[in-house]
UniProtKB/TrEMBL annotation:
Gene: sugE
Pfam family, one: Multi_Drug_Res
The entry's keywords: Cell membrane, Membrane, Transmembrane, Transmembrane helix, Transport
Protein name as annotated: Guanidinium exporter
Subcellular location: Cell membrane
Membrane-spanning segments: 27-46, 58-78, 84-102
Similarity comment text for this entry: Belongs to the drug/metabolite transporter (DMT) superfamily. Small multidrug resistance (SMR) (TC 2.A.7.1) family. Gdx/SugE subfamily.
């Protein structure tokens, strides 16, 4: 169950990072509300996963899902630049996540 909590927490990190972008510096109400709600839920699920998983593993996986997910959202929905260097960086992040999972 801890891995499921961690996966959902990581996906919620992508949600709050994206909604924070749309909140325009917390000047728009609903994206700001979504940011706060998704943050709280993400932290709560991360905390629940840490009851079982080691700190280093849980935090690395959580931030990795958030980083890779935000990268994908930025490319697909926000028109961010796609380059080989950025793709390589994302591949390295995902490779690190896989290695961290395999080591746990």
């Amino acid at each position: 169950m801890a891995w499921i909590f961690l996966l959902i927490a990581g996906l919620l990190e992508v949600v709050w990072a994206t909604s924070m972008k749309y909140s325009d510096g917390f000047s728009r109400l609903w994206p700001s509300v979504l940011t706060i709600v998704a943050m709280i839920a993400s932290f709560a699920l991360l905390s629940a996963s840490m009851k079982t998983l080691p700190l280093g593993t849980a935090y690395t996986i959580w931030t990795g899902i958030g980083a890779a997910g935000a990268f994908i959202v930025g490319i697909l929905f926000l028109g961010e630049h796609l380059s080989m260097m950025r793709v390589l960086a994302a591949v390295l992040i995902v490779s690190g996540l896989v290695l961290m999972k395999l080591s746990s």
